[in-house]
Specification:
about 5% strand, about 700 residues, alpha+beta, 21 helices
Length: about 700
């Protein structure tokens, strides 16, 4: 395609992948880029640091307690393995002999080469062996595997054994996710492939967007690897999983939108290069605005303090950028290279009669839906809004705070061991609070801790090798992750902080949960308004209006509330109603940003048609011609996020359900009924204060035909 020097940037971009010669240059560019990115993408797992999944900000008291413990007590750097032995009828001599034999065998894996004596339960039915595991991460993984194997060697009949503690939990997570990155990729690709095949009903066309989005995913993985390797970007399994799902889901959405517009233009242009240039030029604004909304929304996560949430932002933004680049350059080039036959058996043929044809005539179902919304817009939007409000009441089935023993979708050894310990020892014994204090006033710290309601037992102070610090174990009377235990730690902190010169810090699992809850609460208060502000600004710039963005933003927030309510009903039925603390913020971000996606696709087309047909006809026409493709995109995105449910963690299943339900609600109710009916009810004022808000009689005209020179 020839362009003049005065051509706008987006027109020049549209000409690159659609030109007669430049399309081959674009393909060669991507082949070289893909060849360079492939080896780097494979290495992404090498730079994963899953420690961030459970990390707190360095300023949190639990984090400061860990740092002090690591400096004062070198063995604190090693995760604790806890072997538990239980016989409900009472331990026998053979059981104790088994424990003694295991203790000797475990010494080779223990930091310091020694395992402390077993701790017996008061009921005489259980024994515990606890020791820090020596070595680096790989050595610990091998050691824990051998410890588990030793537990199964010749146990007396009826003796139950399990390995728990931080080392056992770490190993269970490693086992649970072994090979899951490949499984998730295959599940996502298979889901997308099936839906594309159903959407296009073509034996060939579905392959093009699938291959293109796979290339985009490869590019995104390579860039994230380089940023992690050389720029300190934090990448964990969660962010890598979200990256795959985002690139596939969003990339296919962009492909559906572009291909639908390309199909329209192929009927109006004899030259497929010209058809692609027009299609890309008319759709790139909506696609770019959609990508900007999601990417900038994700970058808002940089304002969070929880490391795992903060790291998700830039990783996801890289994925969105890669999807945008591939779908607006590689995809159109490949489509033009292969020509019309890709659409077989439903090949869009050029016809002079189609030049002035209104494509809405080909969308019978959506023309009827638009007619339904147009006849009684007030009743439609009020009824839809009422249905969403009713659904939102399901939020009452959800609660925030997921106990560790409910975080896996299957039974694992560390959870089994924890339950065995809780059945035979004080509930807090499995995870006592740990007080780190100056050695001088150690006795006063112990005395103060014993006066705190909810503290069942306070151990003797253990002095650090340099004599400056002591650590004191405080066993809580309640289960470590209960609200009562959190309140106890709060009181314990207040008691020991009040001691002059003690410099006391309270850490441990319960303290971690308390600090995590407060950190997430702060992140929610900061990021939610920030995301809404970013989305609002983008909508204002895109639509050049104020009222329409406010209405669209309100509809998306209502959709999120309804999604949480509907998901509450589903998750409660599945047995997973206790949400991981980071889920509400993450799902809010995805549903607001992705939900606005579909509204952007509709609103930009509505604005385009309103300028030509008038407000009422423009909104109805936009709904008619975009309904099918946006619905297909919503189904694809919901199903793609549904692939997260293959992961063996309950938070992943919760994310899959909430985001999947939310996208479907946004696709079928908000974008199809609520938004257009509300816009029709309000009238041209929807576009206030732009010129479109001023009512004027606009005759219905045939769709404009953009004639361009033959592509070069």
């Amino acid at each position: 395609m020839t362009t003049t020097p005065q051509a706008k940037p987006h027109k020049r971009l549209a000409g690159l992948p659609s030109g007669r010669r430049s399309k081959y240059g674009m393909l060669i560019f991507w082949l070289v880029l893909s060849a360079a990115a492939g080896p780097l993408a494979i290495k992404l797992t090498e730079v994963q640091n899953n420690d961030t999944l459970g990390a707190l900000p360095a300023t949190a008291e639990a984090s400061r307690a860990v740092q002090r413990a690591e400096g004062a007590f070198p063995d604190s750097q090693k995760p604790l393995a806890v072997a538990v032995y239980v016989r409900e009828s009472g331990l026998t001599d053979a059981d104790r002999a088994k424990v003694d034999g295991d203790r000797t065998a475990f010494a080779r894996y223990a930091d310091g080469g020694r395992v402390p004596a077993p701790v017996a339960s008061e009921d005489g039915q259980a024994l515990l062996l606890s020791f820090p595991v020596a070595g680096d991460a790989d050595q610990r993984a091998d050691a824990v595997a051998e410890v588990k194997e030793q537990l199964t060697v010749d146990p007396p009949a009826g003796l139950r054994t399990a390995l728990t503690g931080p080392a056992g939990a770490e190993d269970d997570v490693f086992d649970a996710f072994a090979g899951m990155d490949t499984t998730l990729l295959l599940a996502t690709a298979a889901t997308v492939a099936f839906l594309l095949l159903v959407t296009y009903r073509s034996p060939v066309l579905w392959l093009i967007p699938l291959i293109t989005v796979a290339v985009a995913n490869q590019l995104a993985s390579a860039v994230v690897y380089l940023l992690a390797k050389h720029a300190g970007l934090a990448v964990d399994f969660q962010s890598q999983s979200i990256l795959t799902v985002l690139v596939f889901g969003v990339g296919v959405d962009y492909a559906l939108l572009l291909i639908a517009r390309y199909r329209e233009e192929l009927r109006r242009h004899a030259d497929r290069h010209a058809a692609m240039a027009v299609a890309l030029r008319r759709s790139i604004g909506a696609i770019g605005a959609s990508a900007a909304t999601v990417a900038i929304g994700l970058l808002c996560l940089l304002a969070t303090q929880l490391p795992s949430t903060r790291g998700l932002g830039p990783v996801g933004a890289v994925g969105i950028a890669a999807a945008l680049l591939a779908m607006t350059t590689l995809l159109p080039a490949v489509l033009v290279i292969f020509g019309r036959w890709l659409f077989w058996p439903f090949v869009p043929r050029y016809s002079p009669d189609a030049v002035g044809l209104d494509v809405a005539a080909e969308h019978g179902l959506w023309r009827r839906i638009a007619g339904f919304a147009g006849r009684r817009p007030r009743a439609v939007w009020l009824g839809t809004a009422a249905a969403l409000v009713i659904l939102s009441f399901g939020i009452g089935n959800l609660s925030i705070g997921m106990p560790h023993d409910e975080s896996f979708t299957k039974e694992v050894g560390s959870v089994t061991g924890q339950r065995m310990i809780e059945a035979h020892y004080p509930r807090g014994a499995v995870a006592p609070a740990e007080i780190l204090a100056a050695a001088g006033p150690a006795d006063q710290v112990v005395a103060a801790a014993r006066t705190v309601p909810g503290v069942a037992e306070v151990g003797a102070p253990e002095r650090s090798p340099d004599g400056r610090w002591v650590r004191i174990a405080a066993v809580l009377a309640h289960t470590p992750d209960s609200d009562a235990a959190l309140d106890t730690v709060d009181r314990l902190r207040a008691a020991v902080h009040a001691l002059p010169g003690a410099q006391a810090l309270v850490g441990g699992d319960t303290a971690y949960l308390l600090d995590e809850e407060r950190t997430v609460g702060r992140d929610n208060r900061v990021v939610v308004p920030l995301v809404l502000a970013v989305v609002f600004v983008i909508l204002v710039l895109l639509l050049r209006a104020l009222l329409a963005p406010l209405l669209l933003l309100a509809s998306v927030v209502l959709s999120y509330a309804a999604a949480m309510g509907a998901a509450g009903l589903i998750l409660d039925a599945m047995g997973y109603p206790k949400l991981f603390v980071g889920i509400p913020l993450q799902t809010f971000l995805f549903l607001v940003a992705l939900g606005v996606d579909y509204t952007i696709f509709l609103a930009t087309r509505a604005r385009e048609e309103t300028a030509r047909l008038g407000h009422r006809q423009g909104v109805l026409h936009a709904l008619t011609v975009t309904g099918g493709v946006i619905t297909s995109a919503g189904v694809v995105l919901a199903a793609t996020f549904g692939a997260l449910s293959v992961l063996p963690l309950v938070p992943s299943v919760q994310s899959a359900v909430i985001i999947g339900v939310g996208v479907l609600l946004d696709t079928f109710l908000v974008r199809s009924l609520l938004v257009p009916a509300l816009a029709l009810h309000i009238g041209p004022r929807t576009w206030w204060p732009s010129a479109l808000a001023r009512p004027a009689l606009r005759p219905v005209a045939a769709p404009p035909v953009e004639r361009i020179p033959a592509a070069s």
